[in-house]
Give the backbone structure.
Amino acid sequence: MSLSAPTRHNVPIKSAHEIELMRNAGRAAASVLDMIEPHVQPGVTTESLDRLCHEFIVDELGATPAPLNYRGFPKSVCISVNQQVCHGIPGPRVLKKGDILNIDVTVILEGFHGDTSRMFFAGEPSRVARRVSDVAHESLLRAMDVVRPGAHLGDIGHAVQSYAERQRCSVVREYCGHGIGRGFHEEPQVLHYGRPGTGLEFEPGMTFTIEPMINAGRRHVKVLADRWTVVTKDHSLSAQWEHTILVTPEGHEILTLGASGTP
């Protein structure tokens, strides 16, 4: 097997062997989110959740947490709470009843990356919190549904944007999905807004993430002084769901399904 995969427009096309390794990495990443779910409770710190994830990734999966020390990121997972959009750094913050949080996990297993995230609730969320999480989740489902050979990147963006904006939510534009494989971030960039029928045409063997960030208020964001944590400028709640996707000859396969088997 060649060490360098063939590419189309600089997008790696995975071989059958590489796809199987991607499946293994994707299942591993999803299992971290399955494991951590019962631990998300009011009164726990985000740092303690990070520690549990780190120990599970390293000791149980024999994998590597990709975010740790990636461009200086200090923790093993990203945990973004309430108005935090993405790249939240776990720390001493204690979860309160009604908090919503995204836990974003990327593992490296057998040289390949698996990347996925879900929303969690610490106790019963507010109506607005549940709604923005539901809109983000449905946006992801609709985006994945358009992925098949011959479809285009713009179809993903249009699926997310058209749905989320109809629900009177907004789509963050500064951050996007990405190709993934041996590299954490490969081509293409997967925007969550756009026009159908535009951009890269999908081919079997392409793998990438779809990870729409949806705000209950306006789309504008800013980065905090830690140079990582992204928050909504208007302090509105934000939600995100993410899967790693493989383009197959028949359509697509979700590589990061959890034990429930539902996306």
About this structure: DSSP finds four helices and 17 strands in the chain. The longest helix spans residues 16-36.
